[in-house]
Amino acid sequence: VAVNKMDTTKWSEDRFNEIIKETSTFIKKVGYNPKAVAFVPISGWHGDNMLDESPNMGWYKGWSKETKGGVVKGKTLLDAIDAIEPP
């Protein structure tokens, strides 16, 4: 899940965590495991965390998700896209 427009919240960690909580609740309701989903804070306008790590979110240490092959970790949206398993 790309959490976009982080620049409009001044790259707020609290807002990012709030969105993760709300989105995880929805993901559970539709039958998915939130632990199998990568959450990445990005700013599409500025390019933050899309291809390269952003210096604007020093608090962000990366994402991790559970897969059939084990735990996968990354830092950017590109990493998360690359980690998508085919159906």
Q: Fraction of residues in helices? A: 25-40%
Number of strands: 4
How would you state the average pLDDT, rounded? 96
Which architecture name does CATH use? 3-Layer(aba) Sandwich
Strand order of the largest sheet: 1-2
Termini separation (Å)? 17 Å
Describe the protein in words.
- By secondary structure, the protein is an alpha+beta fold.
- It has one domain: 3-Layer(aba) Sandwich (Rossmann fold), CATH 3.40.50.
- The chain is 26% helix and 16% strand.
- It has helices at 13-29, 77-82; strands at residues 2-3, 40-41, 63-67, 70-74.
- Strands 1-2 form a two-stranded parallel sheet. The chain has a two-stranded antiparallel ribbon with strand order 3-4.
- β3 and β4 (70-74) form a beta hairpin.
- The chain is globular.
- The mean pLDDT is 96.
- One of its GO terms (molecular function) is GTP binding.
- This is Translation elongation factor 1-alpha.
- Pfam families: GTP_EFTU.
- InterPro entries: P-loop_NTPase (IPR027417), T_Tr_GTP-bd_dom (IPR000795), TRAFAC_GTPase_members (IPR050100).
- Keywords: Elongation factor, GTP-binding, Nucleotide-binding, Protein biosynthesis.
Q: How would you briefly describe this protein structure?
A:
With 87 residues, this protein is an alpha+beta fold. 26% of the residues lie in helices and 16% in strands.
Structural descriptors:
single chain, 87 residues, alpha+beta, Rossmann fold, two-stranded parallel ribbon, two-stranded antiparallel ribbon, 4 strands, 26% helix, globular
